[in-house]
Amino acid sequence: MRKDVRAANFAPSPLRFSISGLALITFFLGSSAPPASGQTVDVIDPAQNRNWAPGAIDHALTMRMFQDVNQSSQATPPIIPKFEVDGDPSGAVATFTPGVATITANNAFFRNMGTNGRTCFTCHQPQNGWTISAASASARFDASAGLEPLFRLFDGATCPTDDISTLQARQEAFKLVTGKGLIRIGIKLPLPPVPLQFTVTAVQDPYNCTTNPATGLTSPTTGVVSMYRRPLPSTNLPFLSAIMWDGREPSLSNQSIDATLIHAQATTAPTASQQAEIVNFETGLFTAQVFDNKAGVLHADGARGGPVALSQQKFFIGINDPIKPPTPPGFFDPNIFDIYKPWLGLAGVGEAAYRLSVARGEEVFNTTKIKITGVTGLNDVLGMPVIDGFCGTCHDSPNVGDHSVKAPLNIGIANAGPGAPPALDISGLPVFRLDCVAGPLAGSPPFYVTDIGRAMISGLCADIGKVKGPILRGLAARAPYFHNGSAATLMDAVNFYDQRFGLGFTDQQKQDLVNFLNTL
Question: For the residues 278-284, what does the mean pLDDT come to?
Answer without folding.
Answer: 97
